[in-house]
Amino acid sequence: MIFLFTDFSYDDLYAGQLHASIASIAPEVPVVDLLHSVPNFNIRVGAYLLSALSETLPEEAIVVGVVDPGVGGPRRPLLLKVNGRWFIGPDNGLFNVLVRRAARLESYRIDWRPISLSTSFHGRDLFAPVAAQLAIGTLPECSSCDLAVPDPMAWPDVLCEVIYIDHYGNAVTGIPGGALEDSAVLNVRRRRIAYARTFCEAVPGVPFWYRNSLQLAEIAVSQGRACDALELKIGDRVAPTD
Amino acid sequence: MIFLFTDFSYDDLYAGQLHASIASIAPEVPVVDLLHSVPNFNIRVGAYLLSALSETLPEEAIVVGVVDPGVGGPRRPLLLKVNGRWFIGPDNGLFNVLVRRAARLESYRIDWRPISLSTSFHGRDLFAPVAAQLAIGTLPECSSCDLAVPDPMAWPDVLCEVIYIDHYGNAVTGIPGGALEDSAVLNVRRRRIAYARTFCEAVPGVPFWYRNSLQLAEIAVSQGRACDALELKIGDRVAPTD
Amino acid sequence: MIFLFTDFSYDDLYAGQLHASIASIAPEVPVVDLLHSVPNFNIRVGAYLLSALSETLPEEAIVVGVVDPGVGGPRRPLLLKVNGRWFIGPDNGLFNVLVRRAARLESYRIDWRPISLSTSFHGRDLFAPVAAQLAIGTLPECSSCDLAVPDPMAWPDVLCEVIYIDHYGNAVTGIPGGALEDSAVLNVRRRRIAYARTFCEAVPGVPFWYRNSLQLAEIAVSQGRACDALELKIGDRVAPTD
Question: Is this prediction's ipTM beyond 0.85?
Fold first, then answer.
């Protein structure tokens, strides 16, 4: 089964072409749109979101990950096997958090090339066809390759930033929920945010943080929009204190 | 076949996880995104939209309905069989219009629980897996339960309100088209709206009402946007007069 | 395999009903959402986008194309076979660019009608069921028909206009990339736009044009939004000079 993870947006020209590309090779393989709303070109938050979402996927998942501002440039096309799941996409940092946290890792450079390769849409022309071929059991030509070890300063396990704002206005952070005690307070934009277990237990209108369903700390407002109440945007610093 | 009906939005983190959850149990079962743009947390309009959309579904449909502001609180998880179709979701009113209009109704409380149940995403952890299991013929543990009879004052058959605004700017009401004569006039925001059979027969630029493809009265403007022309929003009162 | 091409938007009431309609007839047939963000009611740009996207589809594709402001009026329902692919939709110009460029063309009027045909949603009630029936090998009743030859002045091969703006802010034109030399300059809103091969080779912040993955000239800004930088909108004139 193939999962798509991109910054292509659903309501645009690109996600449908990924599907068409896969379908022309592997029409029987189910394809799931996991996320197409990674913030545009934002490899860094994409890497944290992909790592968190991957935990929810079946063991045998094949993931096409495309946040690729450098398409057409020299970055390598990668095929990774991380804890049993396959990941296909550009070697630009998008897989760094997965790689850092990997218990088991195999890495390959994709040597196969399609007959026609555009300069601007390797998702459609290269990554999706590789996923489709892999799904039907015909691995395209690849070679083992070494990956640069991600710098732990640049790619910390606990990223104290807002990495996503959902359509309800909730702000997901890069802080694993397990890294915080319930007594922790999150400081963001000069406001102090206390913990609540869930929306039902929070005071309506008062910002709180909770451990969300991806096991990340998330800032929310019961019956409100946290991103508006706190004027939050992606990249905002979130500093935990005890 | 499974149908998803939520306020999750397509371009966000959640619909993809529903698909992944189903796919890990029932990869062969087709899943249709029926609607993910129910107005956020709006159980009331969700209930009317779900009832209208259900009429368009195959007899054997399995519907996951999630508009669930009280997730993590005490409401029961429900499995309903309404006129042959299955509905799975929270016992918070979302199924009230279906239930009121049901010719045949069976109701069950879902007793099965997943190994891991988040406090904030029962759609992924509970409702989607139940739908997937049902689709492959392994009904999870359930018990018959009684449903409160929806108060007909709170859940009228004719809801004289705007319940949805589409991306063309058309305003769907909760008034069944069959409840109105062609001579009926709809009063909304101090304007009087007359009937036209279809866009082609309406005067461009002049608001009109017609019976839409869900058999609901809808306010539209040929070659224009009704929601802008009339400053309509969800919940606005729409009063029919003859 | 069925592909959907509409102005219905994903996050709205209609795309899901197309899927449900197809699924009730042909549950085994994969359905791909090719594009649901054709600018509302814009048959003209829809025709150019459809022609460009069709090139990316498998030979045996069945395409449901619905941009249909005249639904409920007298236009004919069409079934076309263009270069081996099937197209189903209204006879309102949406297929004109495909037809003009067709090497092989068969055209049929759809005579089959569903038991219940709404006045406003022929996509769901007529076109989708025809596609589903075709996909499972039971062609519904049709008759050969003649198509009006599209006026080459109204439907030029090189359309010097912005036909689409994507969510990155890039502006797609109706000018085939092959019609331009690399030395060509595009004049748009009193600005002169020079060529770059790809984003990596463009100067950040300076608008450029390149041949996009649909083989159309596209105006973009590396690390920026062309539509904002140039205040572009659909229909804006784009004049090439050498």
Answer: yes
